[in-house]
Design goal:
seven-stranded mixed β-sheet, dolichyl-phosphate beta-glucosyltransferase activity, Spore Coat Polysaccharide Biosynthesis Protein SpsA, Chain A, transferase, dolichyl-phosphate beta-glucosyltransferase
Length: 329
Amino acid sequence: MEYLWTILFIFISLALCFAAAIISALIIEAFKRRFNREHVEAPAIFEDPNSLKRVPCPSIFDPAEKYMSLIVPAFNEEYRLHGALEETINYLQQRAAKDKSFSYEVIIIDDGSADGTKGIAFNFVRKYSVEKVRVILLGRNHGKGEAIRKGMLHSRGEILLMLDADGATKITDLEKLENQIHAVAKKETSRDSSIKISDIPITAFGSRAHLEEKALATRKWYRNFLMKGFHLVVLLIAGPGIRDTQCGFKMFTRSAARKLFINIRLKRWCFDVELFYLSKYFGIPMIEVSVNWSEIPGSKLSPRSILNMLWELALMSIGYKIGIWRIFN
């Protein structure tokens, strides 16, 4: 009996030591990101492959020059990026031909790809000009959240859309998010006609929640278990409000993007949850909009990604709840 108690004591001691080590590591990492300086600062230029000239990047703090910016993060997307960009730009061109007031830019952020992603992206710049398609090179892989943050901070649109490089969401669905944003903004502009939509903070979250029942029936049990567990952790950390935080199709007014992306600290999978948390903090209206979505082969989600997501959620919880991370207005 004493032998069992000794083993139990050792096991509990080791568990407590492990927990203390994890918490200490989280606190240290949270303090490292306290002043939001741990982000990559790639050169603030776009390269024009036609003229070889360097085009200075605009800032999210500058006045908008385009109606819409589309931010596309890309990491080793050699086989999926071309088709998605063709579909996206064809839609944008057709819309611009019908509506002369519609102006746009597509910003591709190459997140340290080791394949031909950069070459494909620059081919689109050559074809459509650096005025409409721009590429930011991060040099090495930093994570999807960091890539999107960089694109957002150097965009020119009144409305900014983040979308995945695989084309999983139909590009025409951006009109659903756009219409909802305009409906919310209309209440403000009706009171003061001088207010622009870019000045009103609003976010629209594309959502696959309406597809959940079908997904549960077709996915393997362990993926459903992980999904449900993740949603529960998000609910505990960030609270209720959005059923699907992880859909890679989100739209922001320029004002909302400015508030959110100067504060975001998570660089990889859980930056979406941080966007949701910060939107609630600032009182930014959030609209959840159902979108058409299909699973495209080539997902980068892995067991290691799950561990990274849990780490980032814990880091965010400590950073904000304890007050280590300061939020800038």
